[in-house]
Automatic annotation (TrEMBL):
Gene3D superfamilies: 2.60.200.40, Probable inorganic polyphosphate/atp-NAD kinase, domain 1. GO terms for molecular function: ATP binding; kinase activity. This is Diacylglycerol kinase family lipid kinase. The keyword Lipid biosynthesis applies. It is an enzyme of class 2 (transferase). Keywords: ATP-binding, Kinase, Lipid biosynthesis, Lipid metabolism, Nucleotide-binding, Phospholipid biosynthesis, Phospholipid metabolism, Transferase. The keyword Lipid metabolism applies. Belongs to the diacylglycerol/lipid kinase family. Residues 1-129 form the DAGKc domain. The gene is ytlR.
Amino acid sequence: MYHFIANPNARSGQGLALWEKIKLKLIAEHIDYQIHFTHHRHHATEIAAELTASGDPVTIVVLGGDGSVDEVICGLQNLSLVTLGYIPIGSGNDFGRGLALPSDTMKALDLVLHSEQTRKINLGVLHYHDKVHRFAVSSGIGYDAAICHQLCISRVKVFFNRLGLGKLAYAACSLYRLRRCQPDEMEILLDDTKRLHFKRVFFASAFNLPYEGGGCKFCPDAKPDDDLLDFIVIANVPKIIALAILPTVFSGKHTRLPGVHIFRCKKAEVHSKIALPVHSDGEPIYLQKDVSFSLEPETLKIIT
């Protein structure tokens, strides 16, 4: 039995039409399935929690974008008994990109239905106040989170997505937020032992996969199954240098530029002098001063 969790509004409203194509193939191949449509924010989390509460093995297929994946993994219980498939129909699809999954809807469906291979991956955990929020791709505080917040309220994303130019929406919001960004001090503690101080921090982010923002390769060497997070800090450079860094992140050539600091760790604690935007897999979290990032002790099995 395959349990499909589908966002009918994904890809600027094309999610439902894409599901109809998928349903025809499932029927033609006599596949046993159930469909669960999401109707509001965090609904996928509720559905995933219900499907995995019994403690029985279950296969869940996410039909959506990175936001849908984020909501689903936040609801999963009994991780060791879950097998997850992914059919990317969002605008960013950094989860699928980072795992080298097919971007074509029907090819991704074929993989989910007929592949006998799976891969166990880590899941990250964002901690803030007394709350936790899992992430599959990345989570951060500062400038990159401000871009995510901006994309959630901007009509620019919808406009460019309809044209199939989602990356331009990210680029436009990046420039907009950079003009308004005010870098400030951060204290960072890695693995409870390595303490770092940065005076002008644009952002600090933990990566489980290499990409975010629709193909920005911020941490090119990040691997989802090495029990480590790649932690990037952009700091101690003027805005003009930060602006010069931006075009290079699509190729991953920014890693040796001034102001780019990348570390590998199991845990990172961040204290910001001022409250800043926070995101988890692109989903906005309220302004925070203190956050930390770690890994779930259990892994999640992905169809590859």
